[in-house]
Design goal:
Rossmann fold, 5 helices, 39% helix, 30% strand
């Protein structure tokens, strides 16, 4: 019985660690393609990140546009031409798109942050006979462990600027990000593969 409960605790801890590991890289949770879109693949994309941090925006746009270029897509970052912090006026974006000749814009933004709690049950005392049995079991008692973490939900939207319509969108989840560059590369790889499969890139 003691061995069984020890093994059970180990399995619970392992499952919890596997869940956290799986979420450290972004996971695509939903995607949509305009069923009416049968146009040609976009010839030039502008990558636009929406963030309160100018540094994070630049890192994200750099890594995502590099991934697109490596995949054979003509893409460029927006921040050198649209360096403003906060919401950028519509006219400025229109002028920039006309100047660069971009016919598509890929916008990524954070839409939700969830605080989650994960509890791994502990093991109570496994009393044996008499004092010595109780004493040995007392050392084997394991209290429950509680982990709190944040799950970020992002939305990425691909716009066809010739029609002014959304032709593709996807939502993805990830744990709170500490390495923006690494995360941006992972997200780009994930979304590019899906957009290619949906024939919008």
């Amino acid at each position: 019985m003691k061995l069984f409960r020890t093994l059970l605790l180990g399995v619970l801890v392992l499952l919890g660690s596997l869940f956290v590991t799986a979420c450290t890289s972004p996971q695509l949770t939903a995607s949509w393609k305009d069923p009416a879109y049968h146009g040609a693949q976009l010839s030039k994309l502008m990558v636009l990140g929406i963030s309160n941090s100018d540094a994070n925006r630049r890192i994200f746009e750099d890594r995502f546009s590099q991934a697109l270029q490596q995949a054979g897509v003509n893409a460029q970052v927006s921040y050198p031409l649209l360096p403003e912090s906060g919401a950028i006026p519509q006219q400025r974006i229109q002028q920039t798109l006309a100047k660069t000749g971009a016919d598509g814009v890929l916008v990524t933004r954070l839409i939700k942050v969830d605080q989650r709690v994960e509890v791994t049950p502990g093991m109570g005392p496994m009393y044996g006979r008499g004092f010595y049995g109780w004493y040995g079991s007392a050392w084997a008692a394991v209290p429950p462990s509680v982990d709190t973490y944040k799950v970020l939900t992002l939305e990425s939207t691909l716009w066809d600027m010739k029609s002014g319509k959304v032709i593709w969108s996807g939502t993805s989840d990830t744990l709170e990000v500490s390495d923006i560059a690494k995360f941006s590369r992972q997200l780009a790889k994930l979304l590019i593969a899906k957009m290619r499969a949906d024939k919008v890139l």
